[in-house]
Design goal:
Distance between the termini of chain B: 52 Å
Largest interface: A-B, 19 and 20 residues
CATH class of the largest domain in chain A: Alpha Beta
Number of helices of chain B: 10
Number of helices of chain A: 17
Oligomer: heterodimer
Largest sheet of chain B: 11 strands, mixed
CATH topology of chain B: Rossmann fold
Number of domains of chain B: 1
Structural class of chain B: alpha/beta
Strand order of the largest sheet of chain A: 17-20-21-16-15-22-23
CATH architecture of the largest domain in chain A: 3-Layer(aba) Sandwich
CATH class of chain B: Alpha Beta
Radius of gyration of chain B: 21 Å
Helix content of chain B: 25-40%
Number of domains of chain A: 2
Helix content of chain A: 25-40%
Number of strands of chain B: 13
CATH topology of the largest domain in chain A: Aldehyde Dehydrogenase, Chain A, domain 1
CATH superfamily of chain B: ANL, N-terminal domain
Shape of chain B: globular
Strand content of chain B: 15-25%
Distance between the termini of chain A: 59 Å
Low-confidence stretches of chain B: 371-376
Mean pLDDT of chain A: 95
CATH superfamily of the largest domain in chain A: Aldehyde Dehydrogenase, Chain A, domain 1
Structural class of chain A: alpha/beta
Chain lengths: ~475, ~375
């Protein structure tokens, strides 16, 4: 069994408190992970500026080069991990064994992270709208029109309180190092794997170890991280998001409530989009905030729901090693049963139909874990309680709603794919402030263009654009 | 006989003597609490519901098992005077509360128990680090809490003056439950500001009571001002709470206090206690034992046992895990077997405390998620 220490600015620290991370189906310990107490984090954060100072000794482009090198190491190399070594296959096995995610999905997430590292230059170029990255290093510079501009870092480090159940989120913190900001991570209890492997890949690529810290721990560690980093992100449920609403230091990522809206102009051809809709619901076991949890149309909703149920309703729970496995296990005791209980309660409402019922029981309980099979629910009205619900498995409602009422009724939506050619509807969708990422046309909600910002531009979160005035002499010197 | 065998024999003798003291004390306390001339209205009334006569049938500590488990809900609401033993009527009486964030708090009347408990505890403090005559800071909860007055008495008993701060733990619990983390942070700062004001006002404070969270915050705040716990003059810290884990203790010793008492000059002693029990002391905590913390109740005035989760009448084996059961046997309070909201491992007797102890104390796993820990 691997022993994984806390990393305090790159230095391993073995705690007297350890958490055994267990295999989700056998219960065998996979790793013993040292736990950090909150005070350690608060004390270490007093030295956070040093991480930025060290990174500012490199140029952004040098760091991007090292990040690119780490992309390959992360994907292909055997890297040090705790008191052992970890090959890519070990990583896939370990991540799958503790999170319940099928191995092929772990591999796909690995490739996704590596892709983002590999293409960091292009991604940062898009997110900064082509800004000369030296301006971020210095905090000021001159743009091509000859005007002085300033982007001031709001923090020496980016903190992140990461989840256990969605390895896809790691792409969000990857830009920190090339932006010359240190990294302070609290991994999810079941998913220490990505942060540690990434840190190992960074170090092997030549990024100084002193610029990252990893603090596994309980809720106290998460609270300490959030209170001691000037900018951090957290992943959680609606309550977490509400908790940090309006807090400029915390970017809270919660449920996506992502949706597909079919315009009246295309809905009669709904069959053309069924594969796209099914993919949006089912891919990555429906765990992501970008997975579709609601399909909205004014008519044909019953047929759409029926077709989706036929497509994904028969999917069975398969072992994580099976390349055909499409479902992730619920590894927390009782959680799947509790989720199914909530769904069952909502299904009692008039006008609500479980279209997947004919394909057998949805809740599959095994000795140490449980699965929920894909579930499609038809709602005759947006007012049905279940219409806007979202769960961590392939679950979606198909909601009958007149087109002109959709935007008023859909509620907050992270990704909206509006399938329509109707310019009035497109304009309304473009103006809707409760939609974050907008796809116009037949684009799955789960298809992300990495050159687009996700839930707010990380550059705006980490840097502040502000006035910066200099004398004419100084301006001339800056231009030269 | 080898020295090991001699030590074992000595320990056995000490255990036997302690047990005899406990049996005699248990008998005496039951006589006191259930006799019409001395008992309190609550127990005299309860006597009628019992299926046995405590005056004739409780002869030693084990017989106390005949009582049903104590329900702390009995402590909610008035009249508080129903808990005052007749023999103590008319004496100045304190009322101390626990909980109380919502609803009616549990309350306990006290006359002199908190003085006695803390005077006994005082005997365990090393004078080198808790000098007689030194002034103290009570960096803990204020309001209707036993701890607040008990620490002040401890300090006065040792010849010093105790400086206090304002800290309302009920408001802190509300802030946590409401998710008002910014307010929580500000309230913590307000608390620490008060402490630093006192510590930097030439009051020559050498000792303090505090909780792990507040010690952490105080140390950080002092370091931000370019000083430290030691540099500000503190040499002895008395602290307590279930957050007192081995890892936290190690962190505190290594990073907040500059090392062991010999190296850093600051001695910290963990304790475990509450309004019902008084104060359990810790066996010396050392790096050699991985900062393991074992508590021993102040027998015979209070007894802690580690009992089976399924059957609270059964002790678990040594080193095994169970729930902490408390029995309080003072002239002011009789608590025959109360299941604490904590669990831990049963520890062996040793020379200083020749009776069972409990280590690894943490919130009882079945109620832990519903408990708001780390109030102050």
């Amino acid at each position: 069994m691997l022993n994984i220490p806390v990393l305090r600015w790159g230095k391993p620290y073995e705690s007297l408190e350890k958490d055994e991370v267990l295999h989700f189906s056998t219960g065998e310990p996979v790793a013993s992970v040292s736990q950090a107490n909150g005070g350690i984090i608060q004390r270490d954060m007093r030295k956070a500026q040093k991480a930025r100072d060290i990174l500012r000794d490199f140029s952004c482009s040098e760091l991007i080069g090292l990040i690119k090198k780490s992309a390959d190491l992360y994907l292909n190399a055997t890297l040090p991990l705790g008191d052992g070594q970890q090959s890519p296959d070990d990583f896939v096995y370990q991540q799958s064994s503790t999170t319940g995610l099928p191995e092929h999905m772990c591999r796909a997430n690995m490739a996704k992270n590596s892709f983002v590292l590999e293409n960091m230059h292009t991604i940062l170029d898009a997110l900064t709208r082509g800004l000369d990255l030296d301006i971020l290093t210095r905090g000021y510079g001159v743009e091509s029109r000859g005007v002085v501009m300033s982007y001031q870092a709001q923090t020496p480090v980016l903190g992140a309180v990461l989840p256990s159940n969605s390895p896809g989120v790691h792409t969000l913190w990857l830009p920190a190092i090339p932006l010359q900001l240190g990294l302070v991570l609290k991994p999810g209890p079941q998913e220490p794997w990505t942060p540690y492997r990434m840190a190992s890949a960074f170090a092997e690529a030549g990024i100084p170890r002193e610029v990252f810290s990893i603090y596994p721990g309980g809720p106290e560690a998460g609270a300490a991280l959030l209170s001691s980093c000037d900018r951090s992100m957290i992943f959680g449920g609606t309550a977490t998001v509400e908790n940090y609403k309006g807090n400029p230091s915390v970017q809270a990522h919660g449920p996506g409530f992502s949706k597909i809206l079919l315009g009246d102009d295309v809905v009669d051809d709904w069959e053309k989009y069924i594969d796209l809709i099914a993919e949006s619901i089912y891919i990555n076991s429906g765990r992501g905030c970008i997975n579709c949890s609601g399909v909205w149309a004014s008519r044909h909703t019953k047929e759409i729901a029926q077709a989706l149920a036929e497509r994904i309703g028969p999917v069975e729970a398969l072992p994580p090693t099976d390349p055909k496995a499409g479902l992730a296990a619920f590894t927390v005791d009782g959680m799947a049963a509790a989720v199914w209980g909530m769904i069952e309660a909502d299904l009692k409402e008039a006008g609500v139909t479980d279209m997947t019922e004919p394909f057998g029981a949805r809740l599959v309980e095994q000795e140490r874990c449980a699965y929920l099979r894909p579930t499609i629910v038809h709602c005759e009205s947006p007012e049905n309680a279940i219409a806007k619900k979202e769960y961590m498995f392939p679950f979606s409602t198909v909601v009958q709603c007149p087109q002109d009422e959709m935007l008023k009724k859909i509620g907050p939506t992270l990704v909206c794919s509006g399938i329509t050619e109707n310019e009035m509807l497109i304009k309304a969708l473009s103006d809707a402030t409760h939609i974050d990422r907008l796809n116009i046309g037949a684009i799955p909600t789960s298809k992300l263009n990495w050159l687009q910002p996700h839930e707010g531009n990380i550059i705006d979160f980490l840097f502040r654009s502000r006035a910066y005035q200099v004398t004419d002499d100084r301006l001339a010197a800056l231009k030269s | 006989m080898s020295s090991t065998e001699t030590n074992a024999a000595d320990l056995q003798t000490l255990q036997t003597q302690a047990r005899e003291r406990l049996d005699a004390h248990a008998y005496e306390m039951v006589q006191w609490h259930f006799h019409e001339s001395t008992g309190c209205p609550f127990w005299l009334e309860k006597k009628a519901d019992l299926k046995f006569d405590p005056l004739s049938e409780i002869k030693n500590y084990d017989d106390i098992q005949k009582f049903p488990l104590f329900e702390d809900d009995w402590l909610r609401g008035g009249p508080a005077s129903r808990w005052i033993p007749k023999a103590l009527e008319g004496k100045p009486t304190y009322i101390f509360e626990t909980g109380g964030t919502t609803g009616i708090p549990k309350s306990r009347v006290v006359i002199e128990d908190h003085w006695i408990d803390y005077e006994n505890f005082s005997e365990t403090l090393p004078d080198k680090y808790f000098p007689k005559g030194a002034n103290w800071l009570m960096l803990g909860p204020s309001g209707p809490r036993r701890l607040r007055l008990a620490v002040e008495h401890l300090c006065q008993h040792r010849g010093g003056i105790c400086f206090c701060i304002d800290l309302d733990p009920r408001w802190v619990v509300k802030l946590i439950k409401k998710g008002w983390m910014e307010h929580l942070e500000e309230y913590k700062k307000h608390t620490i500001d008060q402490a630093i004001t006192v510590l930097t006002a030439d009051h020559d404070i050498r000792c303090m009571f505090t909780t792990p969270k507040l010690l952490d915050s105080l140390a950080l705040a002092l370091e931000e001002r370019g000083t430290s716990i030691r540099e500000i003059g503190i040499t002895g810290i008395f602290s307590g709470g279930t957050e007192f884990t081995p890892q936290w203790t190690r962190y505190a010793v290594e990073e907040l206090l500059g090392g062991s008492p010999e190296e850093g000059g600051v001695y910290m002693t963990p304790t475990y206690g509450n309004t019902l029990m008084g104060l359990a002391c810790s066996k010396p905590v050392t790096p050699e034992e991985n900062y393991k913390i074992s508590y021993y109740a102040p027998q015979p005035r209070a007894v802690t046992e580690v009992v089976s989760f399924d059957d609270p009448s059964q002790l678990v084996g040594y080193d095994e895990t169970g729930r902490v059961k408390l029995t309080t046997l003072t002239k002011e309070l009789f608590v025959p077997g109360f299941l604490e909201r904590d669990e831990g491992e049963r520890e062996r007797p040793f020379e200083t405390y020749p009776w069972d102890g409990v280590s690894g104390v943490r919130p009882f796993h079945e109620t832990a998620s519903a408990t708001t820990v780390g109030v102050y």
